[in-house]
Write a structure and sequence with these properties.
This protein has helices spanning about 5-20, 25-45, 80-90, 95-105, 105-110, 120-130, 150-205, 210-215, 215-225, 225-275, 300-330, and strands at about 50-55, 130-135, 140-145, 280-285. It is an alpha+beta fold. Strands 2-3-1-4 form a 4-stranded antiparallel beta sheet. Strand 2 and strand 3 (about 140-145) form a beta hairpin. Helix 7 (about 150-205) runs antiparallel to helix 10. The longest helix is centred in the middle third of the chain and has 58 residues, at about 150-205. It is rod-shaped and about 145 Å long.
């Protein structure tokens, strides 16, 4: 190691001496690179960035069940799963197409409508100007960069508003058919119950009574004194003997239908709520505002990177040229 130290120091001194000997050309070329980077940075279009931050909601429904999870209330913030779902919705074509159409981004990004690759180019521009990222706190950050500072803020806030619209549409694609099925089933049960009640009313008008009352008809007949009363009760006994069993069966069916309708009511109310309610699926932590300062280009960074890059490249190129010259002399 002691032998390598003097060798390294010697190489360092030789490199510094080499740069000092070539200082004029290094300084001239580096200066040209700096001037070029300044001009290029001044010609670059300033971009302004607006940012919106949202949290996903933990639940998107109102539960009518007594066994509903108390943690999944409408006021709870969502966790990783809800954030990932919301991120997928933000990146979907449902939102992208609406933003492109509403703000005329095809023309704004100066893409020819007759270009056969216009959708590819539009997708590239959209993804480079509009970005969605999860933060370490579980929220979602929406960044929109554009040369028009007001448009950037409008697009970011519109995306935030579209979250509820698009997600509700997706939910309704499933909940409306489910509600229609529940509605048909409920109407069917109601119709069957009403049919049973109608037949029971008809039998009641004929004199058919419940089994409890029917059990007393024979004793009433024995106690009857007048011939007219005895004839009436006898007719009642005959009618109940003929239709009593049917009436008892209808009573059982009626009670079963009532029980089914009662149990079915929660399911029906849940499906009706899911199909008709418009839920808010996010918490807005920070809406987007119009930027008062450009986000890029960072001219100082561009100039510094160009200066250092040019300096090292020039030194490397001069070293290579010097080495080639030495090898040619040896040959």
């Amino acid at each position: 190691m002691s032998e390598n130290a003097p060798e390294f120091q010697s190489e360092s001194r030789n490199l510094l001496l080499f740069i000092w000997r070539k200082r004029k050309i290094v300084l001239i070329l580096t200066g040209i690179a700096i001037i070029a980077s300044v001009v290029i940075s001044l010609l670059m279009t300033p971009m302004f960035k607006s940012t919106a931050i949202i949290f996903p909601a933990a639940t998107s429904t109102v539960s009518f069940s007594e066994q509903s999870n108390a943690k999944a209330s409408a006021g709870d913030f969502g966790e990783e799963e809800q954030a990932e779902q919301l991120l997928q919705i933000l990146q979907s074509a449902r939102i992208r197409n609406r933003i492109v159409e509403q703000f005329g981004l095809l023309e704004h990004y100066e893409i020819d409508a007759d270009d056969p690759n216009k959708f590819y180019k539009l997708g590239q521009e959209y993804s480079s100007h509009i970005q969605f990222t999860r933060t370490r706190y579980g929220s979602i950050r929406i960044d929109v960069s554009d040369r028009d500072r007001e448009l950037a803020a409008e697009v970011a806030n519109k995306i935030v508003n579209l979250i509820d619209t698009v997600k509700n549409e997706m939910i309704k694609e499933r909940t409306i058919p489910a509600f229609e099925i529940n509605l048909r089933k409920r109407n069917q049960l109601e119709s069957e119950k009403n049919t049973i009640l109608k037949e029971m009313d008809s039998l009641s008008r004929m004199g058919v009574v419940s089994s409890e009352v029917r059990a007393n008809l024979n004793s009433d007949y024995a106690k009857a004194r007048g011939g007219e009363d005895r004839a009436f009760i006898k007719n009642q006994i005959d009618v109940n003997q003929q239709y009593g069993a049917r009436y008892d069966g209808l009573e059982i069916l009626r009670d079963e239908k009532i029980v089914k309708l009662t149990k079915f009511e929660d399911s029906y109310e849940q499906s009706e709520s899911d199909a008709n309610a418009m839920f808010n699926h996010k918490f807005i932590v920070e809406p987007a505002v119009v930027a008062d300062k450009k986000d890029k280009p960072k001219r100082m960074i561009i100039v510094l990177v160009a200066a250092f890059g040019a300096f090292f490249f020039i030194v490397f190129a001069l070293l290579v040229k010097e080495r080639i010259a030495q090898l040619r002399k040896l040959n």
